[in-house]
Each structure stands twice: as structure tokens, then as C-alpha cells.
Amino acid sequence: SSSPASSSSSSSSSSSSNQTIRPTRFLSIFKWEWRKGYDLLFDAFFAEFRHDPHLAELFVLTSRFHHQGRSVADEVRRRALLASDGSHSLAARLLARVHLVEEHVPDDLLPAVYTAADAFVLPTRGEGWCRPCVEAMACALPIVVTEWSGPTEFMSAHNAYAIPLDPDQPLVRAPADSAFAEHLFANPSSAALRAHLRAIVREPQRARERGLQARRDVVRRFSPHLIAQQI
Hints:
Layout (H helix, E strand, L loop, with lengths): L15 H5 L3 E9 L5 H11 L7 E9 L7 H12 L4 H8 L2 E4 L8 H6 L3 E4 L8 H8 L4 E4 L13 E4 L7 E3 L10 E3 L3 H13 L1 H19 L1 H7 L1
Helix pairs in contact: 2-3, 2-7, 3-4, 6-8, 7-8
């Protein structure tokens, strides 16, 4: 399915300059579960671009996993309305910048999806590895990801935007309805996530340089022939 506000066009710009700016395209790919931090992602995106939504778009490929209750689109709408302090017109403008895809995307089409974006973002609370992060890096995208668990194996200050843990509450327990109920997970800093999103919009060349370094690092460390030699 497309954006929860797919029938609405993005807000009319008050100046012609806004209409000529190509928005920064953020991409996120994940299973729809609490561990992946979808709540942090949407809340940060809506809050950071509340006053200038024309500057960025968020493309999300997701599927429900151990998830009950609201549909994906309904949950995104709810968060947009909360971020808009109940203003339906502002929520509609924010939702117009979000594009949801819940259908399966074949593997052979994924490279085109990655290369159409400017950065990959995932404020995850914990990963074993995070294959989408490595796929994004292989496609020369900088990644915005939590500095915790699996991704720390391949992320660096030169190829990624690391999201630190919240200094006041670095760990949180998974909710009771989670597949990982009562387990402790990372609590990524929302402030740092927002700062990274803004930095990529403001400094696109620096983001591209990190993306190119990301590809070099993946090729150098994880090319198929190198992995084959190790096993």
C-alpha cells in the first residue's frame, strides 16, 4: 500500500523556491515490531520536519510481525496527529511526506529501491546483524542506525551516523505484548536521531561521502569471495 495519505498531495509551497528543492529521501526497511523502533522513527521524522515538511520524505518498506492492534497506516496517522498537536491539516502535510509499502518487494528490485534514496535510517533497539543496513551500505547509502548490538560490527564515524543511547535511560524493557517481553533493549536518543536527519538534509555532500565510504567498507570486508574464503 502507498502512503497513509496517498490521496493527498503535499502541501502547497508558499514560495517558488520550495517547489524546486528535491526533498531528501530517507529509506527504512524493517519488520513492523517494537524492537525495530518504528515509533522512534516516525516521531523523530514528524517532529524534526514539522515546520518544513517539504525538505524530506520517508519511504518505509515494512511487514507486520508479532503485531496486534492498529494497522500500520493507522498507527502512522495517529503519530502524525500527535506530532501535530491535534491539527489535522498539519498532520495531513506530514503524512504526505511518508510513503508506506507493505507488499513484498522482490530481491532483484531492492537495489533500485536503495539507490533511489539518499540515506537509510533505522533507530533499532537491538539487532543480530541488520542485513538492510549492509545492503544499504553496499548501495552507497550512509546509514543512520543505533550504535548498539550487530551494526557496531560494520558502522564507523566515516560511513554512518551513529545514534547513541539516551543518556538518561539507556536501556528499556520490551513491552508485555512484544515477542521479546521483559528483555532489555537499547533506548536510542531521539534528539540525536533528529540531529542526524537534519544534518543529512543540510549537508548532502557529506552524507554522500559517507555513503561512498560505506560501499568501500562493505566491498572490502564482506564481498562474496572474501566470505567464501573465510568459510
